[in-house]
What we know:
Layout: H1 4-22, H2 26-48, H3 51-67, H4 78-98, H5 106-111, H6 115-134, H7 137-147
Helix pairs in contact: 1-2, 2-3, 2-4, 3-4
Amino acid sequence: MASPGDSLDRAAEEERLIRAAQRGDRPAFAALIEAYWDRLYRWLYQLTRDRHAAEDLTQEAFLKAFAGLHRFRAGTNFAAWLFRIAHNASANRRRAESRRFEPLPDDVAARAGGPAEEAEGREALRNLARAVGRLPEEYRAALLLRAE
Length: 148
């Protein structure tokens, strides 16, 4: 069982590593990555349920943290800051993925009937896609989940 002194020692060591990394010490930042990689990856895996996406997002979060380390205020919660970066990266990825449109299968057009019906069906689908695209993200996600 860890004693309160152990957590104070860990906090002091983390603070030292952060200050060193802010001065450009790459091995210090590598030590921070080592300390947080598994925990951040597991959390992102729980969000995405995709091993590759979680790995990519973990790497992206650390790259963004390294790039923005000069903005991190010493004495604040590094883990919270890092996890917020990862959360934002995950949200950005979800938004980008929701903007991708996949074409309809070829057999959908064959079932539509004649050329007039096919044109009407395509126009209706375009109108629907535009309307869904204008919905706020949380409503769009709920609708798309329900429609699947």
